């Protein structure tokens, strides 16, 4: 935590920095001098380098950090990124009262990938009970304006959430509604800082007003389907992971004051004057030296660092003795339970007692079943070659089942008999055709159309599939093939234009050629890739490390991406796209070999999307078209590599969702996420975090060579992934398998960052 500005433009009467026991701020420089910023950044970088940290979180704090102004803030951010990003992923955050936030500052925060938390206590009455200017005026309108700025689509990526300090005199429902109205990605609820020497206010008759207030809010939150991540409630759940204020995890926060002093967590300022001091500073002392300070070291000891009462407490694993500062009592120091002890115990019991949807049944998922292994492998972020082979095989099974369903529409035909025969004598040829990404969309279209309008409503795919397989196998055959829009499509091979032949053609397959008779005309088509027969449009492909990648711009069933696809490309454009794809694939191998292996294992075709000058950079995946992704043709190879990795994540997860329900069906839950303005269904969030995890890994890998920009991208996608995973877990919208998968993803976020270095 970097105290970049030690004064504030608000004068909140609950502020622990100015209004509580510690008054060291009075002797500190108003703003952190550039030399101190530089020294601080170097200390952080030094620590990250020596310990090979995968990520460092730096929170710009104050006072009020926005008092630096845009120019001052830019200097600090640039210094931090330049010094730290060569060594680790820098997750930049800021805690602000928001009063000074404007468009220019928002753009700066977005540019530097800073995640911004805003202090806001709820509705006007609640917020203005404490959060006022020195003249006593309200800050409510200014803070709400800041929140609306962060909600704007261009800025939302930097909106981390709201920090709300609890006052039990406020109406919890009104506070809850006011917080939700600001659409925060996350809410932190903070108990007002207090000690045994200065206990919290306890208005009213009850002995546990904070537990009662928070319990009521928790109940509302659960009843509403957990519409936002509330960290306090998530941390208090069994296995919730804890926070600085709860649980037994080692403390991992150090503060650098505006004068360069190393300090312990700043909440200690509530205990006594100088309580957070260490006697060290960034000019002369490393992080390791500060970490050995007794006040820091004792907070690495888990339950052994707690008082006897807490050690014997039944909920110590979740409460952890509460916030360290809240244990202070003159005489016994910090060797006490929290001054909120009774409230914490009661709150945990209330949270436990309130009925929630049953969590994952551990027994169902505790054994390492093949399903576990598949999900765990994919939850690494990429998935092994064996997992990709399994997903490809299951997709083929689905296509085969659809094929049989299509056969059942009209009963066995000559085309069906031919397919069955080929499956016996040339199974690889049938397999290659059925694995073409747009066979399944074709079969689904046939089934859907028939269900709506009768059996003959859509083109029967079986004859064309049989012809394609016979051609690939070199097996002579003859079938009648339906003609759509004056053409026959032969998946994996190409399309044959047959103007004027009517609705059907008799096709005879000979090795290397087709003889086609329709109406009164008869013609022979040589399937020579160089000397093209009239009307023959072969599917083009390009070399990639896994073999050949189809450039699929002819199959009519590629039109399944919810956005226009490009018509067949002219030869120069096809050549240029092919070259970009080849190079992009090599970039993926360079940056993220594990993802490259996953691409090698299943991506077979790329579909060019129609150009749109307003949105030149687009990509898409279709649930029924496993093995293909769609992209715009403009990106350079480096950008194309990111698109391929991103979309392939969606394809893999789609294949998993064909097998398992990871999201409980039919709940109607919507979850707020930082990367979209609109609340998303859980499956959309799941897709988002899985794709963002991979993109994080790409940018993380590039950060060492490409510097601050790549590091900023990595930090942003990492934050999105984390926030999305937390929101999903909090939503209780996942099945047992989904909880396991997302839980593993959470674990993998840090691990995969290390692995990609
Ligand atoms: S905005 Fe924050 S730092 Fe400023 S007075 Fe209020 S609580 Fe203190
Ligand atoms: S509930 Fe009280 S006794 Fe139990 S761990 Fe928390 S502070 Fe300690």
In words, what does this structure look like?
Helix 1 (34-51) links the parallel strand 1 and strand 2 (55-61). It is built from 26 helices and 22 strands. It starts with a strand and ends with a helix. The model is unreliable at 358-367 (pLDDT under 50). The chain has a seven-stranded parallel sheet with strand order 1-2-3-4-5-6-7, sandwiched between helices. The chain is of the alpha/beta class and 757 residues long. The protein is elongated. The chain is 43% helix and 14% strand. The chain binds iron/sulfur cluster (2 copies). One iron/sulfur cluster (SF4) is lined by residues 309-310, 313, 315-316, 319, 321-322, 337-338, 341, 344-345.
Cα distance, first to last residue? 25 Å
Count of alpha/pi helices: 26
Total beta-strand segments: 22
Low-confidence stretches: 358-367
Strand order of the largest sheet: 1-2-3-4-5-6-7
Mean pLDDT: 90
Shape: elongated
Which percent range describes the beta-strand content?
Answer: 5-15%
């Amino acid at each position: 935590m970097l105290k970049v500005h030690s004064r504030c433009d608000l004068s909140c009467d609950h502020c622990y920095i100015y209004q509580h026991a510690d008054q060291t701020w009075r002797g500190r420089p108003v703003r952190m001098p550039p030399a101190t910023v530089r020294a601080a950044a170097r200390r952080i970088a030094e620590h990250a380098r020596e310990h090979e940290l995968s990520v460092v979180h730096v929170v710009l704090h104050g006072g009020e950090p926005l008092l630096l102004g845009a120019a001052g803030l830019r200097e600090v951010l640039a210094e931090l990124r330049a010094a730290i990003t060569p060594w680790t992923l820098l997750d930049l955050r800021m805690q602000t009262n928001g009063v000074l936030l404007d468009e220019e500052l928002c753009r700066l925060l977005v540019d530097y990938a800073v995640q911004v938390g805003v202090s806001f206590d709820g509705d006007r009455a609640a917020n203005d009970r404490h959060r006022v200017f020195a003249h006593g005026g309200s800050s409510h309108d200014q803070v709400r304006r800041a929140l609306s700025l962060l909600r704007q689509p261009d800025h939302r990526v930097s909106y981390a959430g709201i920090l709300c300090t609890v006052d039990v005199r406020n109406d919890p429902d009104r506070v809850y509604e006011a917080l939700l109205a600001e659409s925060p990605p996350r809410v932190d609820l903070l108990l007002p800082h207090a000690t045994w020497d200065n206990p919290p206010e306890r208005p009213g008759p009850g002995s546990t007003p904070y537990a009662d207030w928070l319990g009521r809010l928790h109940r509302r939150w659960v009843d509403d389907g957990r519409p936002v991540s509330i960290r306090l409630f998530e941390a208090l759940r069994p296995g919730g992971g804890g926070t600085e204020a709860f649980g037994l995890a080692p403390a991992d926060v150090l503060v650098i004051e505006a004068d360069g002093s190393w300090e312990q967590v700043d909440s200690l300022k509530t205990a006594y004057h100088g309580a957070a001091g260490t006697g060290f500073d960034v000019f002369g002392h490393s992080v390791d030296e500060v970490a050995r300070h007794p006040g820091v070291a004792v907070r690495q000891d888990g339950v052994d660092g707690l008082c006897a009462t807490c050690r014997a407490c039944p909920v110590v694993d979740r409460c952890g003795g509460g916030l360290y500062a809240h244990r202070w009592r003159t005489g016994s120091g910090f060797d006490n339970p929290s001054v909120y002890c009774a409230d914490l115990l009661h709150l945990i019991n209330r949270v436990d007692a309130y009925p929630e949807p049953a969590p994952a049944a551990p027994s169902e998922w505790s054994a390492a079943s093949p399903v576990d292994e598949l999900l765990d492998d994919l939850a690494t972020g990429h998935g092994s070659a064996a997992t990709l082979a399994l997903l490809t095989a299951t997709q083929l099974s689905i296509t085969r089942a659809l094929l049989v369903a299509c056969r059942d529409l009209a009963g066995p035909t000559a085309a069906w008999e031919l397919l069955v025969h080929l499956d016996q004598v040339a199974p690889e040829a049938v397999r290659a055709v059925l694995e073409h990404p747009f066979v399944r969309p074709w079969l689904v279209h046939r089934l859907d159309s028939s269900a709506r309008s009768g059996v003959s409503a859509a083109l029967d795919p079986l004859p064309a599939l049989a012809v394609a397989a016979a051609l690939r196998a070199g097996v002579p055959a003859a079938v009648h093939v339906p003609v759509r829009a004056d053409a026959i499509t032969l998946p994996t091979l190409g399309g044959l234009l047959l103007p004027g032949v009517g609705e059907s053609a008799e096709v005879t397959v000979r090795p290397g050629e087709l003889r086609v008779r329709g109406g009164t005309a008869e013609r022979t088509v040589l399937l020579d890739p160089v000397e093209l027969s009239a009307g023959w449009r072969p599917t083009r492909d390009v070399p990639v490390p896994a073999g050949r990648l189809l450039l699929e711009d002819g199959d009519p069933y590629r039109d399944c991406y919810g956005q226009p696809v490009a018509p067949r490309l002219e030869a120069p454009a096809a050549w240029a796209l092919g070259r970009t794809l080849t190079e992009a694939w090599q970039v993926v191998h360079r940056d993220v070999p594990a993802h490259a292996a996953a691409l090698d294992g299943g991506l077979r075709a790329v579909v060019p999307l129609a150009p749109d000058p307003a949105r030149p950079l687009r990509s898409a995946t279709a649930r029924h078209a496993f093995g293909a992704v769609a992209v715009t043709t403009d990106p350079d190879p480096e950008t194309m590599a990111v698109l391929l990795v991103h979309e392939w994540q969606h394809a893999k997860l789609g294949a998993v969702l064909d097998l398992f329900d990871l999201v409980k069906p039919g709940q109607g839950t919507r979850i707020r996420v930082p990367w979209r303005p609109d609340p998303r269904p859980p499956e959309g969030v799941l897709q988002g975090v899985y794709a963002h995890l991979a993109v994080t890994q790409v940018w993380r890998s590039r950060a060492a060579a490409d510097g601050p920009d790549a590091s900023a991208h990595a930090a942003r996608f990492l934050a999105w992934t984390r926030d999305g995973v937390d929101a999903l877990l909090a939503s209780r919208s996942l099945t047992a398998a989904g909880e396991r998968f997302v839980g593993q993803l959470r674990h993998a976020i840090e691990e995969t960052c290390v692995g990609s270095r």
